[in-house]
Amino acid sequence: MGEELKVIVFALANEHYGIEVDKVRTIERMMPITRVPKTPAFIKGVINLRGVVIPVIDLRGRFGLEQTEATENSRIIIVASNDLEVGFIVDSANDVIDIDSDAIDTPPEVVGGIRAKYLRGVAKLDEQRLLIMLNLVEVLNKDEIIQLEQLEE
Amino acid sequence: MDMNAYLSMFIDESNDHLQSLNENLLRLESAPEDLSIVQVIFRSAHTLKGMSATMGFEDLASLTHEMENVLDLVRNNKLKMDGFIFDTLFKSLDVLDSMVQDIVGGGTGKADVSNIVASLKAIVSGEYRTDAAAGAPAKTGMDGEPRGIELDQFQISVLQQSMETGHQVFHIIVKVREDCVLKAARAYMVFELLERSGEVVKSEPSVQEIEQEKFDRSFSVYLITHKPMEELKTQIENVSEIESAQMTLLDEESLSLLSQPSKPQPAADRPAEDKRPAADENKLRTSGAQSGGAVTKTIRVDIERLDVLMNLFSELLIDRVRLEQLAGEIRRSDLTETVEHMARVSGDLQNIVLKLRMVPVESVFNRFPRMIRDLAKTLDKKVDLVITGAETELDRTVIDEIGDPLVHLLRNSIDHGIEATEKRLQAGKPESGTVNLRAFHSGNNVFIEIEDDGGGINRERVLATAIKNGVVTADQGKSMSDEEVYMLLFAPGFSTAEKISDISGRGVGLDVVQTKINSLGGAVGIQSELGKGTVFSIQLPLTLSIISAMLIKLGSEKFAIPLSSIMETSIIRREQIHHIHGSQMIEFRGAIIPIVSLSRLLASPDFDESQETETEVVIIRKGDKWAAVMVDEFIGQSDIVLKPLGNYLNGSPAVSGATILGDGQVALIIDPNALIK
């Protein structure tokens, strides 16, 4: 048996993703977002989280998935990594589960179109479902954003 | 005992003491006869020594100890200050300072102090005179006096003077308990107490010996004080582990008895010489006793806690605005009253919270006199620095940033502004140049001015250099006003000094100043008159955390523009916009100024001013450049709390930050400087 990991499970385009609980500050319902001009399309803008201004990213956009309108189930997961605090818009956030760190396998080369470097690994939830563990540092990597911006221009 | 807990306190206090040592030595240099200043210096050095010894910084303690020895001779009139002693003391302070900085950086505070200690020792023994070839005859002859309970002539005269002016003189014998463990510490507490209530003239054994526990069970002191005997006695005896305090009131008769065993007076002119410093000391003593009660009590607070307080308060401010809106909608008089009262209280609270972060500019200014002194010496110029308005307060964040730009400007004034001494005399000016450093409030701004009475700025030379360095073309130069030419000094890669010195004139510096001040939301200006002098003025916002702003609308989006850069608002018609060489301009108050489309710049999704026949514009200013910014609608003026956009979004163009509006929404703050090219 490896270490027990507490993981927040959220859904994005019919897939299940996981982030370690200690990286997550809060989970919020959708709230008004103020657009910030001249930023990549997946950066939705900034929100007021109890007096602190926090940027919000649409994770669908970040992973190059089709962006959809927010629904009743949409949530903003506020994560903190290094000295960055960022909100992720996800389709829904439903669960907190314990998984065994041994149960996380290294990701296969191609997983649902999302490049492997954003992923820490894949864990089996039950017979049907797989849980994709996010690599937060890579998701929040700004160097790549700069490249993206250059691509857009 | 965990010393780490005391380390930050030690560092803070050491810095304070070093600063006060520096200041007072400078004061003493201009008035070397004033023994009251020596007393103050001595006390600072003494406290510093005690503190460093307690914390285990041996080198610090031993260096301050030697300084103390020198100062002790000076304050007892056994040694006269001269240039060599000043230089050695200043050097010692520099070494002390670097040791303390080492401790701040996590070091051990160790340094090789043997050289400087040797010089100090030479001063004490009087040997240095042969090296320094000073003319004054040695006056250290009294060193060999036997030490006993008897007072020397100087101390006697001090005591006599005090009696004449109505003070009481006590002889106190303090006995510590037999089982006392920390004799030195208890004795120190007694000394603390005595020095608070009066002045200790003489102690037996000496203070140093008492601190090293070189006494048996009792020690005695002579004390000058206002306080009644009984009160003092109980206070001393209340110090733990003190057995008794035996006090005797001295009168002139007993005093003359005491002076009997002391040596005959060395020279007939001694008493006359002694009287004056004694009187000075008296003055100091009484003023010290009076101000002692009036000193305001302060505590040191971690700046981070103040930031948290500020954040919490700004949340409250946002809720207040929201409540006011709701109360306006609900229209119930008791609710409105409560909300109004809350608004008043929160207004007062805002003042206090902002004031907490305000620091007098003194904390930046106080290192300049020393810097100017050294600089003037290096350049062989005579310069007086006159500081006014050091009590003017600025936000802590601004204070932290303003130091370097000011150093640059001051160095520039002394290196390039103030002329060499011969040149000044030729021009009929006083030999020593004057640099005025002024700080004052005006409206929501603080101004800092640096004025020198030097040679002023030579327009032609500045222009020639600028043209040579390709900053402007000769044609451009002709049409420039004097002030525009002076501002070229702030252009990157500019230097007019013919001789490059290590003080300034590397061509970097002044442009750094302007960049820094601009980033603080301030502005720099120059006035100059050839042959008369130059004034550099810096305009700074009072605070960086709450600013007044104009809220505007672009379609559904709201933005804030800082009021400090708005000149006025106006409405223009479509046909007033001229297209000149591919850019849009309007005529405004007789000048042609560019017009900026905010909606295009910010890629506004639902507003386009080209659909309108009449457009609201905000006229903004950056230095002497103006521009008109087209907006959809004015909302109004409001105090807003600045919030950073966060690390993830830094460097968004034309946006300098965000704020939270009364309805809880985030509004972006436009950076007007980015709108004017």
Automatic annotation (TrEMBL), chain A:
<dbReference type="GO" id="GO:0005829">
    <property type="term" value="C:cytosol"/>
</dbReference>
<dbReference type="InterPro" id="IPR039315">
    <property type="entry name" value="CheW"/>
</dbReference>
<feature type="domain" description="CheW-like">
    <location>
        <begin position="4"/>
        <end position="145"/>
    </location>
</feature>
<dbReference type="InterPro" id="IPR002545">
    <property type="entry name" value="CheW-lke_dom"/>
</dbReference>
<dbReference type="GO" id="GO:0007165">
    <property type="term" value="P:signal transduction"/>
</dbReference>
<dbReference type="Pfam" id="PF01584">
    <property type="entry name" value="CheW"/>
</dbReference>
<protein>
    <recommendedName>
        <fullName>Chemotaxis protein CheW</fullName>
    </recommendedName>
</protein>
<keyword id="KW-0963">Cytoplasm</keyword>
<dbReference type="GO" id="GO:0006935">
    <property type="term" value="P:chemotaxis"/>
</dbReference>
<keyword id="KW-0145">Chemotaxis</keyword>
<dbReference type="InterPro" id="IPR036061">
    <property type="entry name" value="CheW-like_dom_sf"/>
</dbReference>
UniProtKB/TrEMBL annotation, chain B:
<dbReference type="InterPro" id="IPR010808">
    <property type="entry name" value="CheA_P2-bd"/>
</dbReference>
<dbReference type="GO" id="GO:0000155">
    <property type="term" value="F:phosphorelay sensor kinase activity"/>
</dbReference>
<keyword id="KW-0902">Two-component regulatory system</keyword>
<dbReference type="InterPro" id="IPR002545">
    <property type="entry name" value="CheW-lke_dom"/>
</dbReference>
<feature type="domain" description="HPt">
    <location>
        <begin position="1"/>
        <end position="103"/>
    </location>
</feature>
<dbReference type="InterPro" id="IPR008207">
    <property type="entry name" value="Sig_transdc_His_kin_Hpt_dom"/>
</dbReference>
<keyword id="KW-0597">Phosphoprotein</keyword>
<dbReference type="Pfam" id="PF01584">
    <property type="entry name" value="CheW"/>
</dbReference>
<dbReference type="InterPro" id="IPR037052">
    <property type="entry name" value="CheA-like_P2_sf"/>
</dbReference>
<keyword id="KW-0808">Transferase</keyword>
<keyword id="KW-0547">Nucleotide-binding</keyword>
<dbReference type="InterPro" id="IPR003594">
    <property type="entry name" value="HATPase_dom"/>
</dbReference>
<dbReference type="Pfam" id="PF02518">
    <property type="entry name" value="HATPase_c"/>
</dbReference>
<dbReference type="InterPro" id="IPR036890">
    <property type="entry name" value="HATPase_C_sf"/>
</dbReference>
<keyword id="KW-0145">Chemotaxis</keyword>
<dbReference type="Pfam" id="PF02895">
    <property type="entry name" value="H-kinase_dim"/>
</dbReference>
<dbReference type="InterPro" id="IPR051315">
    <property type="entry name" value="Bact_Chemotaxis_CheA"/>
</dbReference>
<dbReference type="InterPro" id="IPR036097">
    <property type="entry name" value="HisK_dim/P_sf"/>
</dbReference>
<dbReference type="GO" id="GO:0005737">
    <property type="term" value="C:cytoplasm"/>
</dbReference>
<dbReference type="GO" id="GO:0006935">
    <property type="term" value="P:chemotaxis"/>
</dbReference>
<keyword id="KW-0418">Kinase</keyword>
<feature type="region of interest" description="Disordered">
    <location>
        <begin position="258"/>
        <end position="291"/>
    </location>
</feature>
